[in-house]
Specification:
Layout lengths: L1 E3 L12 H25 L2 H27 L14 H29 L6 H23 L6 H30 L4 H28 L9 H9 L4 E13 L2 E10 L8 H17 L3 E8 L12
Helix pairs in contact: 1-2, 1-4, 2-3, 2-5, 2-6, 3-6, 4-5, 5-6
Length: 305
């Protein structure tokens, strides 16, 4: 007997498109201003921050598109809808950021060896404009950054852009006060150092979902222990858990019960107790259990765990 929880698969998909659209518009405007500033000043720090902003605007566009797709209802072909679009968007952002991070490191080395003259006043102006815009975008995204991997990725992008703008401003001040032109390249290096760890973190999180790793914080050993406490349960095996998307964990297991439960009417009640157990203790509402009599396992293939 195999029964799944009866919640809708569309459950849990929140609409964050308004926040993402606002952040996308603000970031796109900052991008245009910084691009003009990079051309006028010749600053590597501002150029790197602009390239960083370009990838982030693209990432926010992907995040907005993914948020739209994730709200599409399930269908017979896509039984979870397009909830994993957010994960694919985060994976694409991570890949782009890795490429940008490597580019930044190469260009920084070249500029340190042969630093050009950078106009500090113009650099400060464009840095302040960029920082102000990023702060507004952060305020828009801050309230929902924990709601999904997609929105968290967008928030981190804007946060790193803001830190990049701070680096540009500091470089401009150093150049203006000391005349040390290499400050521009050092600021670019620091901005690049912000990009790579974030890219690797996003890559790891998105990859874990796509590889159907056990959701963070969910201990399958503990799950098995709780299920074994249900009356008449003899054994629990083949326990699997994964994330469909942020906030949507799923779990399945084979549960061996007393064979008499299939004749005295206990089987249905045991299913209810198993599903209530994982929903209450582990916040997993989508669960599927195959309930087997204790005479059945000897006919099964070797279990996974």
């Amino acid at each position: 007997m195999t029964v799944g929880h009866d919640h809708s698969h569309a459950h849990g998909a929140a609409d964050h498109r308004g926040r993402l659209a606002a952040a996308f518009g603000i970031s796109a405007a900052i991008l245009l201003v910084q691009l003009a500033g990079a051309v006028l000043t010749g600053s590597l720090a501002l150029l790197v921050d602009t390239v960083h902003m370009l990838t982030d605007v693209g990432g926010l566009g992907l995040a907005l598109f993914a948020a739209h797709l994730s709200l599409r209802p399930p269908s017979p072909r896509r039984t979870w809808g397009l909830r994993r679009a957010e994960v694919l968007a985060a994976l694409a952002q991570a890949a782009i950021l890795l490429v940008v991070g490597v580019y930044v490191l190469v260009q920084t080395v070249l500029r340190l060896l042969d630093p050009p003259e950078i106009p500090s006043t113009e650099l400060v102006v464009f840095g302040v404009v960029g920082l102000a815009g990023n702060v507004v975008a952060l305020a828009v995204l801050a309230g929902g950054r924990g709601a999904s991997l997609n929105l968290r990725a967008a928030f981190l992008e804007v946060l790193n852009d803001a830190l990049g703008s701070v680096g540009v401003i500091v470089a401009a001040i150093v150049i203006a006060t000391t005349g040390w032109q290499r400050a521009d390249a050092v600021a670019a290096l620091l901005i690049g150092a912000l990009i790579l760890p974030r890219a690797l973190k996003l890559l790891r999180e998105a990859g874990a979902v796509l590889l159907e790793s056990t959701p963070p914080g969910l201990d399958l050993g503990e799950v098995r222990t709780h299920l074994m406490r249900v009356e008449h349960v003899r054994e629990v095996h083949d326990v699997h858990a994964s994330l469909i998307a942020t906030g949507l964990p799923v779990l399945s297991a084979h549960v061996v019960v007393d064979s008499g439960c299939f004749t005295d009417g206990h089987a249905g009640r045991i299913l209810d107790e198993l599903q209530a157990c994982v929903a209450e203790h582990f916040d997993v509402e989508h669960s599927t259990f195959q309930v087997e009599p204790d005479t059945h396992p000897e006919h099964e293939h070797p279990t996974h765990d």
